[in-house]
Amino acid sequence: QVQLLESGGGLVQPGGSLRLSCAASGRTFSPYVMAWFRQAPGKEREFVAAISWEHGTPRHADSVLGRFTISRDNAKNTLSLQMNFLKPEDTASYYCAASDSPPGIDNIPRVTAYDIWGQGTQVTVSS
C-alpha cells in the first residue's frame, strides 16, 4: 500500500512563495503520473499541475501557468510544487495524487484518473 504525505503548506502574504512536497512511502512506487489538485471551501477539487513520473513532462493549469512549477525526484519518491506570486484565490487545501495506470492525456486533469491521494496541506494567502 502506497501512502502519500504532503507538507509545506502555511500562511503567506500575497505575492509570496511556498514550496509543497509530497513524499511517497510503502511498496515499490512507480506511478505513471503524479499531480497536484486543490480544493477551496465550497468548491470542487480542481487540477493544478501534473507530471509524468518517468519522463518528467509537466502540465500546468492555465490559472497557475508561469507562477507554479511541478517537479519530481524519482530517487527520493518525492513530488514538489513551487508556488510563486501567490494570490488570495490560491487559498485552498492542496492534495497530491498518483495514477498507477496510464490515464490518457485528456484525463490528466480529472480527479477520477488518480488512484492514490494524500491527506492534503492547507495553503492560505492573506495579508
Task: Outline the structure in words.
With 127 residues, the protein is mostly beta strands. Helix content is 0%, strand content 47%. The chain has strands spanning 3-7, 10-12, 18-25, 33-39, 46-52, 58-60, 68-73, 78-83, 92-99, 116-117, 121-125. Strands 2, 4, 5, 6, 9, 10 and 11 form a seven-stranded mixed β-sheet that branches. A four-stranded antiparallel β-sheet has the order 1-3-8-7, with no helix packed on it.
Q: N-to-C SSE series?
A: EEEEEEEEEEE
Intertermini distance: 40 Å
Category from helices, strands and their pairing: mainly beta
**What fraction of residues sit in β-strands?**
over 45%
State mean pLDDT (0 to 100 scale).
95
What best-fitting shape do the alpha-carbon axes yield?
globular
How many β-strand runs?
A: 11
Biggest beta sheet attributes: 7 strands, mixed
Radius of gyration: 14 Å
Low-confidence stretches: none
The share of residues in helices is: under 10%
Helical stretch tally: 0
Main attributes of the structure:
single chain, 127 residues, mainly beta, 4-stranded antiparallel sheet, globular
